[in-house]
Amino acid sequence: MNTRIELRLGGTGGQGLILSAKILADALAAGGQRVAQSQTYEPTSRGGYCNADLVISDTEVDFPITTALDHLVLLDRLAIKPSWPLLKPGALVIADTRLCPELPVGDYRRYHLPLSRTALQLGSERVTNIVALGALVALSGICDRKRIEQAVRAETPRGFLDLNMDALKAGYSVAAAPVAAVAS
Questions:
Q1: Read out DSSP for 90-159?
Q2: By Cβ atoms counted within 10 A, which residue in 43, 64, 159, 183 is the most buried?
Q3: Which CATH number fits domain 4-176: 3.40.920.10, 3.10.50.40, 3.40.50.300, 3.30.465.10?
């Protein structure tokens, strides 16, 4: 059976979206999935629109570009407009409450989570991407937790390893909070 899942991590440059996509792609590939990764970003290195997309399949990826998103993670409101038209009905949308306070109405499963606030509580907003990765894994079941943890360990410089592992686990916890799900 050929299963194709399309995923986007959207936000702004400097948020670590491409790194998060690479970590997830590595974890999925280690589990036997086929993964194609692409990204789009404005010429501004920080603060401009950026997204990192994955196309995941259990067989060869026949077309490596996202056209219909099953999962969307939003770390900044700039990513809403270019991403929204690609959402499949019933898609999973995880959005940061502080940086994406309002989302359009639509047929999707919305999880408005305090991703950046959680990262700030851990001591660095720079790990918002890893908190979001943990929430995505917990809510979507897209990847085995042991594999994502191994991929985070492999991609993280030693000086940031504890912080990134704490951020990943905080993402799992934020996703499990009873107020996480908000119907729309």
A1: EEEEEEETTT-------SEEEEEE-HHHHHHHHT-GGGHHHHHHHHHHHHH--S-HHHHHHHHHHHS-GG
A2: 64
A3: 3.40.920.10
